[in-house]
Amino acid sequence: MGEQKGSTNDATKLSLIFLKSLFARFGTPRAIISDRGTHFCNDQFAKVMLKYGVTHRLSTAYHPQTSGQVEVSNHGLKRILERTVGKNHTSWSNKLDDALWAFRTAFKIPIGCTPYKLVYGKACHLPIELEHKAYWALKHCNFDLKTAGDHRKVQMNELNELRDQAYENSLIYKEKTKKIHDSKIKNRVFNVGDRVLLFNS
After folding, report:
1. Which InterPro entries match (predicted)?
2. Where are the domains of the chain?
3. Assigned CATH topology for domain 8-66
4. Sign of the torsion angle spanned by Cα atoms 10, 11, 12, 17
5. What is the residue-wise DSSP string for 111-166?
6. Residue 197, pLDDT above cutoff 70
7. How far are the Cα atoms of 196, 197, 201 from residue 193, in angstroms, in the given order?
8. For residue 20, what is the DSSP state?
9. Which H or E run includes 32?
10. What integer best gives the mean pLDDT of the chain?
């Protein structure tokens, strides 16, 4: 009974995290791909996904390669940390924020922009830039809600166009990579009597 209550609490927490941290900040996605953990496979999570019209897809069991983008991102972060962390590897947690900032603001060829721009729709500005431009922005906005609202709608449309463009760039990059890979494959011609290795002999 206690175990079941604990899992229910976990499911409730996860649903709240999705609603507050992800959906409220970035909007509801079209689909979510997750593993087959009990956090994602329960009635409460399914109800939340159904309510907001999100398609929930499950990855193959014991197959982490399903989340390919996550694997690529983790590999990139690992390389950054390997270069920045010294001989004392316990300092990696202190360097993680800097590594994440470097990763998010670096230009990615497959999507044709930075991950930061893909999420927020604008270039990453340093605090010193914001400090000097804060008064100008406040004066420019002038607390006119209609103007600010219209400007925000334009920004949202631009962000959608940017994401569509990033998706197309990603597909083009994948096609080019596949062509390069396929060009290196050599076609083998086997004759009767040749010794070959069978996959399942």
Report:
1. Gypsy_RT_Integrase-like, Integrase_cat-core, RNaseH-like_sf, RNaseH_sf
2. 8-66, 67-106, 112-180
3. Nucleotidyltransferase; domain 5 (3.30.420)
4. positive
5. TTB-HHHHHHSS----HHHHHHHHHHHHHHHTT-HHHHHHHHHHHHHHHHHHHHHH
6. yes
7. 9, 13, 16
8. I
9. strand 31-34
10. 78
Residue with tokens 């920004």: 155
For 56, the enclosing helix (H) or strand (E) is strand 55-58
- For 109, the 3-state DSSP assignment is coil
In this prediction, residue 67 carries a pLDDT of 65
Tokens of 145: 């809600």
In sequence order, the 6+-apart residues with CB closer than 8 A to the CB of 144 are none
Q: Is the pTM of this model over 0.70?
A: no
Q: Which pLDDT value is given to residue 109?
A: 85
Q: Stretch 130-151: mean pLDDT, rounded?
A: 66
Q: Which long-range contacts (CB under 8 A, 24 or more apart) does 88-96 make?
A: none
